[in-house]
Design goal:
The chain is α/β, with parallel strands linked by helices. It has eleven helices and 18 strands. The chain folds into two domains: about 170 residues, Quinone Oxidoreductase, Chain A, domain 1, CATH 3.90.180.10; about 140 residues, NAD(P)-binding Rossmann-like Domain (Rossmann fold), CATH 3.40.50.720.
Length: about 350
Amino acid sequence: MLAAVLHDFNDLRLEEVPMPHPGSGQVLVKVRSCGFCATDYKAIKGIRRNVGLPCIVGHEPSGTIVELGAGVTHFKVGDDVICQPSGYCGVCSSCRDGNTHYCEHAYTTGGDGPDIVLPGAFAEYMVTGAECIFLKPANISFDAAALTEPLSGAWKGVIKKSEMHLGDDVVVIGTGGIGLLCLMVAKAAGAGRLIAIDSSDYARNNALSLGATHAIDPNAGDPVKQVYDIIPNGPDLVVEAAGPIAAVNLMTALRRRGTKWNVFGITTHEKFELDGGYTHFLEGRMDASFGTTPEAMQAAIRLMERQLVDPEKIVSHRFALKDIHKAVEAMGEKNRNKVIINP
């Protein structure tokens, strides 16, 4: 089969590799679509180096089951499916608490985090555990289905962790792919005023087209003042979906009494300061969110199936697997959103 094999950082090669076959409890999926995540790009470019080489990245796939391993009874050959990247044992204390993304025996397909990393979905076929498989509803495209995992992360952050309420005034800092999904989830959940903050004209326009009531350029004046001009009493929820430490600092500056704030986008080990007494008397709540769970995946599928959120609207580029190097170039462009690989 054809696969994009990362031999070293900045050394991605299209190669014919042996066709995988499923072991016990696994399935073989013909990949129809796979989202190109920023973590995949960072691995390819050597920005993140917690990567075992050589490897096949790509961890946001949808496809069709073509072979079943021993013991798989809940699916059949020909099922169109959505794949959760993070596998779990189901029996450790974390799994039984519902925190499968904390699993002590976790693995991932094409991603990062656990010690065990299986070949990912920048390939024509991939193997994964049956516990990671969800049936794709017929009214969801393969491209939309491939974005179930990032959409599930947005739902988990905005709804599960930060418990956004109907009518809440919400600020989303950073409206790239994941920020737009957070914004779309907040819109579907009944946000009142929904403010997007991004320095990119392209990103702000996307946010407005997908439901933001206001869009702020942080370089066009004090962003805190701009937000409070729109929401005089301050935001109910602030979601940092940008990544840079400056976005986290802006989030903390936007708080008023009772504000909930979610450290969602930053993954680098950088420090920010809080005034202890001020934070105490604000009586707000800090949350964070990473990864996904079966509950979050199911919630994302429901949002798509009921046509409350269509993640395909954030797709800006599509490439065949044979054009993977063009896709890598697109990932480095300023004015792009979600990139999809269609093997």
